[in-house]
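Subject: Sanity check before I submit

Could someone independently write out the structure tokens for this chain? I want to compare against mine line by line before I put it in a report. The sequence has 296 residues.
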Amino acid sequence: MSLKILLQTFRPSFLILSFACVFLGFSTTVSTQTPINITAVLLILVGALSAHISVNTLNEYADYKSGLDFLTKKTAFSGGSGALVQQPKMATAVLVSGLVALTLTIIIGLFFIREYGAQILPIGIAGVLLIISYTPWLNRSPFLCLIAPGLGFGVLMVVGTHVLLAGSHSALPWLVSTIPFCLNNNLLLLNQYPDIDADKHIGRRTFPIAYGTHTSNWLYAGFMLLACVFMTLLIIAGQLPTLSTIALAPLPLSAYALLGAWKHDADIGQHPKYLAANVATAVLTPLLLGISIMWA
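---
Independent answer below. Compare away.
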């Protein structure tokens, strides 16, 4: 039972997002015809997953300690896992798990710095700062909270993977990272709607709290259109292969999620099909984009 509770706080169903973003960075490296070190790929994936687990568990612990866990209405996509409400005695174990996962991420990063040099250091520092500051500080700044998931999953994971595997920076990973940047910002933005009242109660100031769901819906639409337009422009400019048009296929799911947001506002958590469509877009788009780049 204790292990099950601990695993719940990892939010395992969301960890595929890290795989998708690492895969996109891997695909841009393959496109350069750089020889791939499989051990490095596995270490990068472990580091990305441990970073993701660290964010999830530290957030779960903080939400339990602040009392937020007792205020949120749990859905499959928002409100946390609720595991610590069921088993409060596991709180310390969850905190330790988060710190261990963060330590593992740092150790892997230090290994890469020793082996390949300090060019990954700025990305690594930015990633660690995002992890440790997200719950206590970033959630109190509407704009920083808004772009934190896009920076972490979209930019740092994609670009960081490419730099570690290719040994140098190039334009392509930075360009394609803007797409998961937009979609991951939207992923968390919509998932914050059901928690508006509870988050406000403990002093959080997310974008929907600060500016309302109406403005947030327009922002969601802007990120969605930016991802679509930018990907299309990259294809037209020859930066991405024509086959990359397959990565546009999941974007109607994002439009469907937006329809649900317009229709239900903060009550969207009672209609999880819209939140599921939002998650599917954020995961499937970088996966299909990565496949198209590798195939071409």
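---
OP: Matches mine. For the report I'm noting this point. The chain has a mean pLDDT of 93.
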